[in-house]
Amino acid sequence: MPSSHDWINKPLGVVEAMFGKKTNAVPSLNDVPLHYLKPNSLVKFRCLVQDMFDPEFYMGVYETVDPSTKANVLRCGKYKDVTECGVDLNSRNTVTAERQTFYCVPIPGESPWAKEISFLSAARVVPSTSYVPSRQKRSYEEDDDMDTQPQKQREPHTEPHGNGDSKRQETEAPSSQTTAPSDCSSHLDLNFPLPGERGPACLVKVYEGLDSFKLNDTLEIYGILSVNPVLTVIVYPYRDPSLLLLNPTESMETPEEQRAHDPPASLVPRLHMLYARPLQHNNPLLPSAPTEDQSAFVSSFLVEMASVRAELLAYLTHVLLGDGLAAEYLLLHLISNVYTRRDVLPLGKFTLNLSGCPLNSYTERLYQIVQQLVPCSYRLSMSLHTMNSMRLVPKKDYVANRLVSGALQLARNTSLFLDETQLEQGQLDSSGVRNITALGNLISWQKVDYDFSYHQMEFPCNINVLVTSEGRSLLPSDCQVPLQPQVTPPNMEEYLTTIHMAQFTSQINKFRVYLSLARTLDYSISDEVTKAVEDDFVDMRKDDPQSVTAEDLHRMLVVARLLSLSLGQTTLSRDGWMRAKHIDMLRRSRTEQQKSLNGNEP
């Protein structure tokens, strides 16, 4: 137990030690319904930074006047949205500070199994006996039709001291109840990147280390929860006329901006950040923090890597209808990762095009199996209607002063499943062409150009893209593998379901850990092996210079890297290089054979 001396002399050390030991005891906004959490309590939130609002002023230090004794009391305004009643506006001790607000959403496309395991491992939280919610709230998963009617009662003796607009302050809260107009009951757009997503969104107030955060970061945030009803009454959607403003520019805020920046606290709670941990992955089965426990876990699992790989390869072979070569490439794709960038070239990406896929429901079931293996994924059905109507690229809304999300605003290492078998004949309109272009840029350069109307802003990403198609994909890829089924099940749905159900949960969990762990391993090539690879490349080009290009060498080096990591090996061996050459030769032979059968393919 830290002493008062520790708190005075090394408070940061005390806090960090507490986080290191007690993080599992902190309730999570992802897992616990909001009405179970007491206001002003410590909570955590696993999220993606979807938008970053302008900085705002707040009263960092202020004085209140006791109405009975008339004594002045100095108070701290940090980690609060509202102040105590009786603020002395003329005090010389008032200190104005600055903070920034991030709009954060749950990690897009988080798999149901990852949510379930996180929920089961989370602290069990029961309603506080000292806290009675002002109205009954539904859990996030049950709240399909969210009611945005704000609470009509507010807690007494509170005053707002922060703001949602750039450089403004609010001071006195209204003394009477305020009723929002009836149009407030319309559905609130929580701005989730993917359709059908549920869960909380949060306005996160950030006080320190602003330069260490970027748009689209995935974080686990620890902070003070604020759901005070006064926030709903005052800031959404109209201000009470009795509210005194220190900065008249606040009145310049549009109603659209108010709705975007100051949504009801009952639906979009405020979270005052104390600490944030960047997430390298969101697999709850794998330790995420670099600790001794993680090192021990990794070391023990590395011993099993080869055997788990063999079991996973056998499983994927059955899923891909007996095609062992396609299963090998799918496994390598699932552990691929952009590990660095050289100028504009992302190194490590490995977009796979599985062509020759059966029609009907096969690709949908294949995605469901992939979804069961990775912690984050999304299937984009590339029908003509979807490509012409769906917003893939985020766009800046200057009226509401917010970034409107798009389906390509995804967390790092998300598996994006592009189902091109759904693309029928027809005409792509201008929106569809832009979407196809955006997908091509994502695949080739691992970047998305966000639309800021007058210009585009480039945001790098790290997304695993798997394209399934009937023929060769119209999108670029790093590797095409024509599927060659060895079995033809009479009932595809029943066949794939039987294969999946035959796997024990413990075995599937091993596959999940394996795929996430292989992606995090370091990798290097010794000078000796580098020289051997260069000599081998020269020999391959001697007989037929056109047979092997620099692009082919790059692809084989990527395959060799992934093969090594898939076996838990962090360096490339001569055997690993020869294995990479062999499976690439098999793949190229199959591709050439497919081209000869389908002479119209490029």
From TrEMBL:
<feature type="compositionally biased region" description="Basic and acidic residues">
    <location>
        <begin position="152"/>
        <end position="171"/>
    </location>
</feature>
<dbReference type="GO" id="GO:0005634">
    <property type="term" value="C:nucleus"/>
</dbReference>
<dbReference type="InterPro" id="IPR019140">
    <property type="entry name" value="MCM_complex-bd"/>
</dbReference>
<keyword id="KW-0539">Nucleus</keyword>
<feature type="compositionally biased region" description="Polar residues">
    <location>
        <begin position="172"/>
        <end position="185"/>
    </location>
</feature>
<comment type="similarity">
    <text>Belongs to the MCMBP family.</text>
</comment>
<protein>
    <recommendedName>
        <fullName>Mini-chromosome maintenance complex-binding protein</fullName>
    </recommendedName>
</protein>
<dbReference type="GO" id="GO:0003682">
    <property type="term" value="F:chromatin binding"/>
</dbReference>
<feature type="region of interest" description="Disordered">
    <location>
        <begin position="131"/>
        <end position="191"/>
    </location>
</feature>
<dbReference type="Pfam" id="PF09739">
    <property type="entry name" value="MCM_bind"/>
</dbReference>
<dbReference type="GO" id="GO:0006261">
    <property type="term" value="P:DNA-templated DNA replication"/>
</dbReference>
